[in-house]
Amino acid sequence: MLRYVFWRLVWIVLILMLIYVVIYFSTSLTMLRMWGRPPYDFREEFAIAYTRFVIFTRGVITEWHWGVTGLYDYDVWDFATGPMWLTMRLNLLALAIYLPLSIILGIMSALRRNSLFDKSVAYITMFFGSIPHFILVLLLAVFLGVRTRILPMQFPAHESADTMLIIKGLVIPMFALCMPAIFKFTRLVRGEFLEAQHDDYLLLCKTKGLSNKQAVRRHAFKNCMVPVLPELVPTFLMVLGGSFFVEIVYGIPGAANLLLHSLFAGYRMDYPIIIIDIPVTMLLTMFYSSFGMMFALLVDISYPLIDPRIHIGSKATDTR
Q1: N or C of the chain: less Cβ packing under 10 Å?
Q2: What is the DSSP string of 228-258?
């Protein structure tokens, strides 16, 4: 296990370094070409970008200094820490909602197969889960925020907002983020439990005196969760990508809005020149990349907690 985690961390660092290099040179060369004058000399542009890359990287490694924003003249780390933490909390809160809720709904639907509850869960989750994140949050904001005013029409980001208003402001983005994931996991868990009900080990448990609920809770649950875990990483990344659009549409001051403004910092419709705020773009790109990779590592580590027979990192011939 420790060896596996070590090498996974090594590969994560290498991949992040590759992303770091590619993003910096692509944005820097784009800015040099956009603001340069012909004739263009790629070697000269690359030399300038390389010199800036060395200075920037030295500051990150030695002082953890990610530069200064080009628009507001703020320290990038202090400027982006708040939005990054907000985006992280939103995605972790969505995970804490859609994962247990979908597991419960999937198990209850499997135990009540073809009942009114089973069909209602299937139709409701399919309806809302089939709508993309950004369209769903827009529809909810229009009907629940603008027309009926049941919920805030945008996220209450001002400092004077009370706790209840912030909770109400989380309803629409959480619903938009969670419904596609709930639709996916509910179907998956339901199918696994329906298949497990006919397995020999579960029938043996019932013949030994265990009730259906006891057999499901003690034995079927862990076995059915093993096929669900591999889908957790792509679903989390899907929700993470959806949160980018949800934050922009609903006005959440997270990393998505900051990244969008850093990529199109000086864009104007009547003046087609784009100014890329490279330091902010670098930090937020590394944040999104490292957040997804570390979550994938945590999911892999959790396999032995679900089923102790699984040995992460062991070879096929390992008989432990």
Answers
A1: C
A2: HHHHHHHHHHHHHHHHHHHHHHHT--SHHHH
